[in-house]
Each structure stands twice: as C-alpha cells, then as structure tokens.
Design a protein that fits this description.
The structure holds two protein chains of two kinds. Chain A is mainly alpha-helical. In chain A, 74% of the residues lie in helices and 3% in strands. Chain A is globular and about 60 Å long. Chain B has a six-stranded mixed sheet, with helices on both faces. In chain B, strands 2-1-4-5 form a four-stranded antiparallel sheet, covered by helices on one side. The chains are: A mainly alpha, B alpha/beta.
Chain lengths: 284, 228
Amino acid sequence: MDYVNAVVQGILQGGLYALFAAGLSYMFGVMRIVNLAHGALAILAAYGALVLVRSGFASPLLALLVVVPVIAALGYVLQRFVLQRTLSDSPLPSLLVTFGMAIIISNVLLLTMTANTQQLKLGGLGTASLELGSLRIGVLPLAILIVAVVALGTLSLVMAKTQFGRLVRAVSDDAPTVGLVGASPKHIYAIAAAIAFGLVAIAGVAFGVSRGFDPTSGDLLLIYAFEAVIIGGLGSLWGTFLGAIILGVVQTVAATFDTTLFDLAGHVVFLAFLIFLPNGIIRR
Amino acid sequence: MLEVEDVDVYYGQLPAVRDVSLAVPDSGILAVIGANGAGKSTLLKAIAGQLPIRKGRILFGGRDISRLPAHQRARLGIALVPEGRRLFKSLTVEENLLTALSTKRKGPWSLDAVYERFPLVAERRGRRAGDLSGGEQQATSIARALVTNPELLLLDEVSLGLAPAIIAQIYASVPLIREQGTSILLVEQDVQQATKASPDVHCLLQGRTSLAGRDLDLADITRAYFGG
C-alpha cells in the first residue's frame, strides 16, 4: 500500500513539474530557445506574489491575477527586444543571454529579498486533504495537477485549432515566410514567449505555496523541468507532461526506500532516457 | 501599381541587383527574365520586403514602401510566391491557406474560390504540405498567395523542377488571376514561357538591366540573356 501511495503522491508532484516544464518545452518547441532563466523566473513570480500579499492582497491566488500578466508582459518585451536578437543557427547566444538573465534575477532577489526561506500562505487550503481509503490526497497538489492539465490542454487546443496556433507552428517551420502571409514573425515569437512566461509565473506561485523558497531555488527547478522535457521528448507538450509525471513518480517511489534517494533517482532515470531513448517518449 | 526606382540590393556583402528600375501598371503583367544568378529572385525578395534595398526606392500605389517589413507589405496587397515554394511543411494544405488570412484583406479569393480554381489543392487539403509532390506544392503555394487577395502577385520561378504538363496547368491560371484585377510580376529562366505569358519583358544580366521592352525579338532577348 506504501507504493500505491508513493505513486499517487508522485503523480501529484509531477503536476507541479509539468507546470514548470511546459513553458520551457513551449519556448524550445517554437523558437528553439533553451531558456536557462526559466527557474529564476518562477522564483521571481513567487517573490512577486509574496510582495503583493505583504502589501495587502488577501491571498496568493489573488496575486496571480497581477503576477501572471506582468511576467507574461516581461516575456513579450524580453523576446521582442533581447532574445529576438539572439536567434541564429547557433544555440549559444540565447543560452548565454538567458544564463545571464538567471544570474541577474537571482542576485537582484538576493539583494532585495535576502536569502531567508519564504513561503506563500494559503490558509486552510494549503493543508487540507481528501481521504480515499487509506490514501490521503492533498487538495493543493491535486489542484496544481488539475491546473497543469487544464493549462496544457488549453494550450494544445489553441495550437491545434486557432489562427494564432497555426501561425506559431508556421513560424517554427519557416519564420521569414510567415511575413509573406501577413503576420509579423517577431510579434508571434514574442506572444509565444509571453505564454511561456505566463505559465512559469503560475508554476512559480504554485511552488511558492507548496513549499519554502529562496532566491536560488530556481536552479533545482530548472533541472527538474529540463529532465521532464528530455524524458517526454523535446518540443512536445503532452510528452513533457508525461515526462514530468514519470519524474515525480520515480522521485517519490525512490524516497520511500530512502529519502536521500529522491533527487538521485530522478537524475538516474533522466540519464537512462538520455542514453537509451534520447528523443524521449513522444517524438516530434 | 508598382514602381521600382534605381534600386540596389545586396545579398550579404555581394551586390546582387544594381540600378534596376521597372514598373508594373494596374492590372498589368511583366516578366523578369535572366540566367541563374542574374538577381531575379533577389529583386522579388526586395519588393516583398524580405531583403533591404541599399539604394533607390520602391513605390506601391504611389506610396513609398521601401522601409516597410514584409508582413505590412503583404497587408497592403503584395504577395510573393517564393522560390522553392516555402510551404509550412508541418501544417496541412488547408492550414497553409488559412495562415494567409492574416493579411485580413477582402477580395474574390476565398478558400472556396481557390479550391474551385485549383482542384489539385482541394483534393489534398487535409494532407501535410511536406508530403505533397512538387506540382502540388507549387499549386498550394500559389493558392496561399491568392488567399491574401493581392493587388500584386510576385511569382518566382513557378515552373522550376516541374513536369511540362504541370507547368502548363499553372500558367493557365495566370490569365484567370489577372481577370480578378491582380497585377503580376513573374520571374522566369525559361524565356519562351515568359514571353508567352507576358508581352512586356525585363531582362537582367549580372544584376543589371540588359534589355526591357514589349514584344521583343527573340534574338535580342537571347543576347541580353547571355550577354555579349
């Protein structure tokens, strides 16, 4: 019964990872940018919510209404005026720029918010749980998993059915030609970045209400997100979701043997995928 | 309609088009011919806004469009059928056509009208563009350009690499497109094809105008085409 519980907890854990990895996967899928600032941005969003709650917002959930649009707008501006210039055949310029962004963000947070661990408080909802037989399912992790599924489902639907989705796919096929059909490739890239940043802002706040964070927590989050993306298959949204769930399950199951195995098991499985199935579960 | 005045275009550091001037009248047609590397495609890309011009200016409907990005020129009514078709390969044929609605231009070329004109495209509407044959891709590329309801259609070597029967089919649509009031500027390596489609011919040789005029003598064209 321990294992069943571990698997269920792992799936819930995977929901949070999926929310994280979705933005990373989306940006890579559309503009081939590996955003190394992804983890730092999540933490920035968590601190944003913290500042808002301290200045009178009733709940971190309410703060989302401000944090998500602000981070999304930041994504649009950064893509349009900074990252757009790094797009080339080489992945190196965008890696260097996003790496630099990650360092800037975490150091600014360190200076302004100190290195103390913080947590966003959700009140009763944070600790509530449902009992299912002998299983206890936390309401908060369950809600995060549902948010992840809804977010990915909505994004997939937008990509498949709308004019914007068609243009995003067109731009990753052949950006210069998108200009010929009357749409600005730079604008589409920037909106895609805004979506990715909006997702990571949701993920960051979800992380902040789930556990403690400090300005450097983003590093580990970035690694988890990376592992989920690689396990699932680069650029595939549902692949990323699957990868995130696998990562969560492996970590929690391994932790039932020895809690110190939590991170290690995830890394080992990630490496195994990289060696034996480098294209991930879902190929694109 | 379109006036190109004294234009220089560089491909990287290399001058590809020098001092070229040409004009396409309202509802008119002009064929630009020349050998490989004469600068024909470069010129079309510059008109569509995919390459910057270094000198001169480009007027469209009397308005200077020299500095406008490609998507804004498309919205004004310039459509390029690019060299190599450049379809969005992971999208279906229908999705490729739908992307062209981004220009938000009204006109006769709805999706239905295009399907009616190009049955080949209609048959393949659910297929991924990357899986089409060369002729099907070319027809789809022209169809996509038409869905933008252009005032000026730029055709870049639409016959390249296609079977003669397919080329004939594609050129058969040229008069029908003009009937809807669309001007055409086409680029060809095949002199006979070009002179058949258009009485007005503009010949480029190593990036410069070597000959231009109406109903030209084939011997003159040949000299202008190859130089000497």
